[in-house]
Design brief:
four-stranded antiparallel beta sheet; alpha+beta; C2_dom; MCTP_C
Length: about 475
């Protein structure tokens, strides 16, 4: 509770950074649990910073040893279970749950130092919360035996565990990483995770042992799904890559081909290429149009969920393997600009790089959007698919009993009065907020848990092949 120093920085396409101004906020003078709208003039710069600051006591964050594990105490665990039970679903909607992570040990890590050893420490990230272990020096099989507790703000967040080698004043060296979606956590079971590379697409050297416990309220988690997702504070240092650009173009091509094949199938029904298929389609068309009601739209989507749920798992496993093969790319090589090039040429290179990078990001967004829709119906995340089924069932009943004009009227009144009821409300699209929680095919590969038998490093694979 002191002075909060704020700096405003500007960054151009050439990665040049410039500090534009600074300002200060006295945290101790602000009331707790209340939105404070502040307009702060910037020092040494024209303009001001408009901020909305809310001070909320941070509960649930802790670092401890195994001997004082919070959830190991039966009375404390019972108290936490009571806090997130269904009876308390409408109390403190932002407090969704709690995650406890036991970082036990790592085995067979990469030797980062000349001595053939490493100085490993482990960094845990959940959303914008970051905690880390202590460093164990000169060891390739460190045992941390630490317990970390995180408050859950979104049940669809992903726990990222990264092992680094401490390197004095220099940036730490990367030793491996693993990403674990919260909904895939198996409570109270020690698990061995194969470490992956920075892109989370290939096995790296070593494994890490974790034990996790997850307690959350499903109703609060479901409501949070339809609100904007919290953005990561750390910038994504993604670089331009020909391989990633080619992969994203291929992903968009697959989605386009799926849409094209669907259109060709409908055309074939009209052309009577298959008499039986066209006859069935014609009867279905007549019956549907003659008896069509608006509630049949969510009902049809609900039937699609049921069909994919009852469908054999063979196709789903094959699609995961295909996506893993398609996203099997090597680590990206850095492109170094020659210092001897003229300034005009460098400017053009930056301009072309920005354009291609923008195209790459657009392809990424288009491909991810289509894959998220597909993965929603494919039950990739059962929690989200079940939630969508529940919403569609409710929508079917509402559209069956309530005239459409009343529904549109309620929707319009809510949209028009939203800003009046809450001046600081952020306009959002609930459907897009829901889809943002569904993983794309690339994220499915990144979040997939590798088997221990496939934990060979790329270097070992090359040697074995020779």
């Amino acid at each position: 509770m002191g002075i909060l120093d704020i700096e405003v920085w500007g960054k151009d396409s050439k990665k040049h950074e410039e500090r534009l101004g600074t300002c200060k906020v006295d945290i101790a003078a602000l009331p707790l649990k209340q939105a404070n709208c502040l307009e702060l003039p910037l020092d040494s710069c024209l303009g001001a910073l408009l901020m909305l600051i809310t001070l909320t006591p941070c509960t649930g964050v802790s670092v401890s040893d195994l001997c004082v594990c919070p959830l190991a105490d039966p009375s404390e665990r019972k108290q936490i279970d009571q806090r997130y039970c269904l009876q308390n679903s409408l109390k403190d909607m932002k407090d969704i749950g709690i995650l406890q992570v036991k970082v036990l040990k790592a085995v067979d890590l990469l030797a980062a130092d000349f001595s053939g050893k490493s100085d490993p420490f482990c960094l845990l990230e959940l959303g914008n919360d970051r905690l880390q272990t202590h460093t164990i020096y000169k060891n390739l099989n460190p045992e941390w035996n630490k317990v970390f507790t995180f408050p859950i703000k979104d049940i669809h967040d992903v726990l990222e565990v990264t092992v680094f080698d401490e390197d004095g004043d220099k940036p730490p060296d990367f030793l491996g990483k693993v990403a674990i979606p919260l909904l895939s956590i198996r409570d109270g079971q020690p698990n061995c995770y194969v470490l992956k590379n920075k892109d989370l697409e290939q096995a790296f050297k070593g494994v890490i042992y974790l034990e996790m416990d997850l307690i959350y309220n499903p109703i609060k988690a479901s409501i949070r799904t339809f609100t904007p997702r919290e953005k990561r504070f750390a910038e994504d240092g993604r670089k331009l890559s020909k391989k990633i650009l080619s992969r994203d173009a291929d992903r968009v091509k697959r989605i386009t081909m799926a849409i094209w094949n669907t259109i060709q199938f409908l055309k074939s029904c009209f052309q009577w290429e298959s008499t039986l298929r066209s006859a069935i389609a014609f009867v279905v068309f007549l019956v549907t149009v003659w008896n069509f009601e608006l509630y049949m739209i969510p009902l049809a989507l609900l039937l699609l969920f049921i069909y994919n749920f009852l469908r054999p798992m063979k196709g789903k496993v094959g699609s995961v393997q295909d996506s893993q093969e398609s996203t099997d790319i090597d680590e990206e090589e850095d492109d170094d600009d020659k210092e001897s090039e003229k300034k005009g040429l460098i400017e053009r290179i930056y301009m072309v790089q920005d354009i291609v990078s923008t195209v790459q990001n657009i392809l990424e967004e288009i491909a991810s959007f289509g894959e998220r829709i597909k993965n929603t119906f494919n039950w990739t995340v059962p929690f989200l698919s079940f939630l969508a089924c529940l919403i569609l069932a409710v929508a079917t009943i509402i559209l069956y009993f309530i005239p459409l004009r009343y529904i549109v009227l309620i929707w319009g009144i809510n949209k028009f009065t939203k800003k009046l009821r809450n001046p600081y409300a952020i306009d959002n699209n609930e459907l897009l907020d829901f889809l943002s929680r569904v993983p794309s095919d690339v994220q499915k590969v990144q979040y997939a848990e590798l088997k221990l038998c496939s934990s060979q490093s790329p270097l070992r694979k090359k040697r074995s092949a020779l």
